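Summary for the steering committee. The consortium agreed at its last meeting that each partner would contribute one worked example illustrating the joint modelling workflow. Our contribution is presented below. We chose a case with several input lines so that the handling of multiple components could be demonstrated. No manual editing was applied between input and output; the record is shown as generated.
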Amino acid sequence: MQAVKLEKKELRNLLLGCFFIVLLSLVVGLGLNFLRASPLPLCPPFLFASYEKIDPAQAQKLAREGRILFLDSRNHLQYKKAHLPAALNLPVKDFSALHPALTPLLPENGWIVIYGEGWGRPTERELAYLFRQAKDNRIKILDRGFRGWTEEGYPVVRR
Amino acid sequence: MDRGALPSLTRRICLLLQSPYLSATLRVILGALFVAASWDKILHPARFAEDVANYAILPPLFVNLWALILPWLEMIAGLFLIAGFLSRSSSLILSALLVSFIVAIFINIARGAEIDCGCFGTGEELGGITLLRDLVMLAMAVQIFFFDRGFFAVDSLLRERGSRGPSASGS
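What follows is the complete predicted structure of the assembly.
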């Protein structure tokens, strides 16, 4: 009986210790972030913005007419492996460096169509949000991303 | 061949693995590793949030929150391990973190994802070595959890004070 009591006490101390460490991390982590000059937003704002979508069939049609610039928002390695024909690679972290150079490439009366992997990290939404922040509103998101495009059987450029 | 040699060697290895002195050494090593791992993440939370997002395991809503709290969990539990304060709780938390890292790394290796590990700053690609390193660190944390007796630890000092306190007041 004594042993059981001791074990219970040990378990309680163990869990209290864990709770204390988690609580301390929470307070210090969030507190210091709040004090930063440019704090990291707790909820990424790109998640709550709505974007116009375009399905692969329509995108393919407009691309044939030369009215679309495809932007691949995935990383360089994923882009090198396979990407949509004539797509340019613009990872999220390179946006501020490369955005000015893109302006002359944009088609007149056309659209920028951004695509991501189609699952996992929504890089297309992150990039679309940055375009909107830069007051560039000629953007659409490719529905179901790169995965949707390949599933529909449209052409891709492979390494 | 000496038949008695093997069991005796195995026994010695078992005793060594259960040694509280080994626990004290591992506490310092594992604690220092986690403090070092947390430093770059604390300094560059946005970059670390990108690394977390690239793993594509957490829902995007929780990525930034995790990127802000995880480095401090590593830092605080690491410092506590070195000091020997709340050693068992710290090793339990670090074990849980390591299990989650191992699962996340394994899933991404299986997916064939070519992403940054984000373990000790940037520039380390995910691979078998990363997985192996985390497994070794998990073994260290488990050893500390089960066999640490509080050598050179703040926990022992506090326990001693606690056990002396009532008798001193009673005398």
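Chain B touches chain A through 31 residues (CB under 8 Å). The mean pLDDT of chain B is 88.
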